[in-house]
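Running this now, will post back.
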Amino acid sequence: MKNQDLSQLSFIVGEFLSLYGWYLLAVTFTVFLLIQQLRKRRSSQSQQYSVPQTQLDASLVTQRQEAFEAARRKMQEELDAKAAIFKEKQRQQEEEKRRQKVEEWDSMKQGKSGKGQKPSESSEEASSSSTGLKPKTNKKPLRSPDYNPLMGQGGSCTWRPGRRGPSGGG
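Update: finished.
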């Protein structure tokens, strides 16, 4: 009985579509176009009413730009301050170097050594420091004094030319 009902229903639907199918398709297409038109109108009306909203957006944009500009100015001022401090330090260092050179020059004119010490004092310190820093060792040298690694003498590692011909060995 269910089979008959389904076959009868499919027969009725098929007959309806064959008679009114094109009309049904046209009505569906028309409804679709109407819905599209209503959406366009609704969006245009919302844009007209949202003009204050766009003005709000514009004010927000200008506020953000001003905030960014203020942040940039602040960062630039910090950078300028750091650059001025660095420049001042550089100038002071150059002044100190120049002053030291002038002092060295004056001491050279007076007969002192270049580092502000008398020649006799520096020679005494040099002799004492050389004996204090280098203890004498009685170790024999690692190689003979006439050894030259570029001459190719001695050792079992020598260079040999590679084989000629195919490497298959035959």
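The two ends are 92 Å apart (CA to CA). More later if anyone needs it.
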